Amino acid sequence: MVSRDSGGKLPLAEFVALIALMFSLVAMSIDAMLPALPAIGADLAVSDPNDTQLVVASLFFGLAFGQLLAGPLSDSFGRKPIIYAGLVLFMGGCLLSIFAPSFEWMIAGRILQGVGAAAPRIVTIALVRDQYLGRAMARVMSFALSVFILVPALAPAMGQAILFFAGWRAIFTTFLLIALITSAWFALRQPETLPPERRSAFSVRRILAAAREVCTTRVAIGHTVATGFIFAAFVGYLSSAQQIFQQTYGVGKWFPAYFATLALSIGCASVINGRLVIRHGMRKISITAIHVLTGLALVFLLAVWSLEGIPPLWLFMCFFMSMFFCIGLLFGNLNALSMEPLGHIAGVGAAVVGFVGTLLSVPIGAAVGQAYDGTVSALAGGFSVFGAAALITMRWAQRTDH
């Protein structure tokens, strides 16, 4: 067994599995809830069906602000204590949602879950950056994302099964149990990666100075904003996926299967990226993927307009499997590119990168979801606009002149 104070590395396979599980708390907390949104709306007296999308958006809102604190605190107090604190907050949010008497209390619990999940989500990136550099970091992140992607592929089916046997509140009980298991595994097996001699005293001035460095480093801020645009399109999809599949296309109980198919497209791309990135590099793969994604999104938008907003389900699935494959190539590489010049401020760097990307993506992505009108027009428009914006931003970030 690896001692938690040994300072050594976990075996790569176990390390990838552990960080994938910590990443998965966010995805699980979103995707397992999707089949339960109508039941939550009915039980908690939500009048507008689109408002149940706030169960998704509110978690991202908490995530944005939670990670802004978690990263800098991890630079001062170590990676492990801050991850422990985040897991405790996440479990508290689960309890609040389990016993929520109203939709407002539910949203409060979801925000607290987001704040708590921010620590394992963002500090884990700094934890990876502590041990790996450049293409090796991108490779680890890609493998972790490929394991992690099994969670969104399976989570809706898990949520639907729990909903059938025990009701939607039991889904939050499951989140609570998984967080407990994660805490135990992390405590027993993962060594601290930031020894005391490398820690910085907690200072608001230092945080602001580091944030300024992130925001004035073209590579870091450019790829962060590009990530935000790509994630905005993805948030729009997550917010409206249940309505699109079950209302627009009427797939009923097969919703988890369709959702999983698209999720696995991202997972396959992440696995492939882990093998390609060592040979071709992050920049070449990411710029190629964003060109293809933007082109596909524009073609899909034209198809949607010509078909009065509702293309056949097979056409929808083909386009989104292709676009999600591109997203799978982008996520790991863009994160690694954003963090590449920030090794000396990895904790606060990861916090600012995550905060800016999430804060950019949540409101505009949620707006796409709220624009759902029974068609996929808003979603198609969102992918086209955000893809083009990400392409322009990445081109600027990868310019060699300064």
SSE inventory with pairings:
Blueprint lengths: L11 H20 L5 H7 L10 H24 L1 H20 L4 H29 L2 H15 L1 H17 L2 H21 L14 H13 L1 H31 L6 H26 L1 H25 L6 H27 L6 H25 L6 H21 L5
Spell out the key features of this protein.
Growth Hormone, Chain: A, 80% helix, 15 helices, 402 residues
Describe it.
The model is unreliable at 1-6 (pLDDT under 50). Helices cover 80% and strands 0% of the residues. It is an all-alpha fold. It has a single domain (12-188, 203-397), classed as Growth Hormone, Chain: A (Up-down Bundle). The chain has helices at 12-31, 37-43, 54-77, 79-98, 103-131, 134-148, 150-166, 169-189, 204-216, 218-248, 255-280, 282-306, 313-339, 346-370, 377-397.
In short:
By secondary structure, the protein is mainly alpha-helical.
The domain count comes to: 1
CATH architecture: Up-down Bundle
Instruction: Quote the average pLDDT.
Output: 87
Overall number of strands: 0
Distance separating the two termini:
49 Å
Instruction: Note the run of SSEs as H and E.
Output: HHHHHHHHHHHHHHH
Summing up helix and strand content along with how strands pair, one would put the structural category as mainly alpha
- How does the overall form come out from the CA principal axes? globular
Q: What share of the residues lie within helices?
A: over 70%
CATH superfamily: MFS general substrate transporter like domains
Please report which band the strand proportion falls in: under 5%, 5-15%, 15-25%, 25-35%, 35-45% or over 45%. under 5%
Specify the number of helices: 15
**CA-atom Rg in angstroms:** 20 Å
CATH class: Mainly Alpha
Q: Could you tell me the CATH topology label.
A: Growth Hormone, Chain: A
